[in-house]
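User: Can you help me understand a structure? I only have the sequence.
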Amino acid sequence: MALDPKSLPVEKKSLYVPPLQEIADALNKGLTTNFAEVNVEVVDSPDLTQKPFSLASKGLGGNPKIVEIGGPPYLLPIVDRKKVYDLKDIANLINSNPAFIIGAGAGPHPYIGVNCEGILNLNIVNGSVEQHSRISKVDQNDENSIQEILPNSESRIALLANLLFSEGKPGKVLKVHVKKRIGPKDFIASIRTVLEEVYKGKLVGLGGAFLIKEGKVKQHVMRDFSKTPLENEEDLNNWLKFYNMSAPLVALGTLVNGDGGLDLRVQHFHSFSHHGEAGHYHYDTTPETVEYLGYFITGDEIYRIDKPVATHTWGRD
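Assistant: Let's start by predicting it. Here is the structure, written out as tokens:
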């Protein structure tokens, strides 16, 4: 079962939408503090249904919306198992039809049987689901991660998610290509920091996909729900299962350059692969050889759905 969408509180805010070329110019300058090679340009979206991206729609455009559902307070310190959402309901709630949905969230534990990471990638048209989403879970021996593809019959998520909703149309996108990390920030944090500096006082949101073409990255996969409260960051990190995962990996999610008074998670990306590895992206562990290629679009508005009343800031990196 999923929560009744009529019971979900919804806050909506318009986002500031700079010209893509303006963002590209800012990133071409700003990203050089973190990467040795930087090339950011505005291009026609490639066909993102093709490998390695393998998205459910060709493009990112058409009524793009940034959507945040729930949050870590529903997972920590003790899980609220009632927080299950059907993305068909969410699409109706925000008047998104057709809905191409990509991003990061907790997977549908009622279907998988255990807590898991969700790498969301699907189309919903008039309530009909075309599912390309994957989940990643820790195996019964508490060692390896296991990636699975969800069926069309399963469109639920749990607890928390950061998603881009659009019509999946081809169009202009921001292409970000960088190599060799020379600074301390991860790929997404480096982009977000530039947007924070350039657009102070203006809330800007990006959603999209990026490919880790070369190198390795630190990623976590959530174990099954903890039987004891996770009271601090140390407890959280001991519960999470961390891996050093290998390229190529495709990461999906959103970022915003501020909180916007909505208790937002400012960045959240989960990645999948065609070789079986998948998880929550943190940062690369091979700065000398790492290479990223991302395609992003700006959101026109942001929806904050079922925001936790009692909140905290940990568990959001």
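Now, to help you interpret it: The CA atoms of residues 72 and 315 lie 6 Å apart. The longest strand covers residues 156-166. Let me know which part you'd like to focus on.
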